[in-house]
Design brief:
This protein has 2 domains: 157 residues, no CATH class; 137 residues, no CATH class. The chain is built from 12 helices and 6 strands. With 331 residues, the chain is mainly alpha-helical. 31% of the residues are buried. Helix content is 36%, strand content 8%.
Length: 331
């Protein structure tokens, strides 16, 4: 009897080994998918100073691009240096997922975007597809959709910068990223309608910013910790992936509920002026990944528009707790 059990166990182990081997072969053969057939947006850079200025506002403030594409040696707690060129090089070394590197988005022809067409640059931003056709996971996860008008302004601004030669370390996808590669596909939603910025705040402008270039939902909407897919009520906060404070051992950040739920909404009791003052106040905790240095430079009207949009959301009960607290406080 024991011999039969051992034989059955051996067969099961053998089958599992074969399945794992076949799975590994399949992943290695298919992970590097080619999305070069993703259409290029019909975007052409402009030399109009007003368009370039609008692009600078979006890049530097609303979309907070310097957080990743600025200083390559920026440490947690360092403030953003606005004079630093957007020459990339900042590196994420993630166990099992691999090494990912922020691109040089200055017009340098050898190490930057100088040899890319306007459409290719626009595709990387809108669809998260790089020049070789490979998906750009961090662009997929950290940027939001923007209108043709704003995308034109962004491409125009980065084209207008001085080229900076900066060699960057090649990215290297890890085993987990390769296994999950099938869940990373181009973002193909149609471009949102443009909402022109004015001095008059509006829910519509706030919705465009929050769900688009400001990408508030990237952090504040619940996300599957394995596939990174959004899987909960918009902007209701999340504790799925708490972030340790790298500047203060034993403390962590979670993403607060931004809906107007009176019991669990982090800013439910804030009026518009309080919301504006908080943004103008900037960083409180050095280790926070919230791009305060960018957001605090937004116009009063845009910040007030964000507040009006957040107040218009359906109240969602989501007791994520204090956004800054001792590690494991909610366990």
């Amino acid at each position: 009897m024991l011999r039969k059990i051992v034989k059955v166990f051996a067969v099961i182990v053998g089958v599992l080994v074969v399945l794992v081997a076949l799975g590994s072969v399949y992943v290695m053969a298919t992970w590097d998918r080619d999305y070069s057939d993703t259409p290029l947006p019909a975007i052409t850079a402009s030399t109009d100073p007003a368009v370039i200025a609008r692009g600078e506002y979006i890049v530097q403030n609303v979309a907070h691009c310097p957080v990743c594409h600025g200083a390559p040696d920026r440490k947690p707690g360092d403030t953003i240096d606005w004079t630093e060129p957007l020459a990339g090089g900042y590196t994420w070394d993630l166990p099992l997922f691999g090494r990912f590197v922020a691109a040089n988005i200055t017009p340098d022809r050898e190490t930057g975007i100088g040899d890319m067409t306007d459409g290719e640059v626009a595709r990387a931003i809108r669809h998260a597809v790089g020049r070789t056709g490979r998906i750009l996971p961090f662009m997929l996860l950290s940027t939001g959709p923007m209108s043709d008008e704003d995308l034109t302004a962004v491409v125009s601004f980065v084209r207008s910068r001085a080229p900076v030669r900066r060699e960057t370390t090649p990215e290297a996808w890890g085993a987990m990223a390769k296994v999950l590669s099938g869940s990373f596909t181009p973002r193909l939603d149609p471009a949102p309608a443009h909402v022109t910025p004015t001095d008059n705040p509006s829910v519509e402008r706030g919705r465009y910013l929050a769900t688009g270039p400001a990408a508030c939902g990237v952090c504040h909407t619940p996300r599957d910790p394995l596939t990174f897919a959004l899987n909960g009520p918009p902007l209701s906060g999340s504790t799925a992936m708490p972030e340790a404070d790298p500047t203060n051992a034993g403390f962590e950040f979670v993403y607060p509920n931004l809906t107007p739920d009176p019991e669990t909404g982090h800013i439910a009791a804030w009026d518009e002026d309080t919301f504006l003052q908080r943004f103008r106040g900037g960083r409180v905790h050095a280790g926070s990944t919230m791009p305060w240095e960018s957001y605090q430079r937004m116009t009063d009207a845009d910040i007030r528009s964000l507040h009006r949009f957040l107040r218009s959301l359906p109240p969602t009960r989501s007791p994520v707790g204090a956004p800054y607290r001792p590690s494991g406080a909610a366990d």
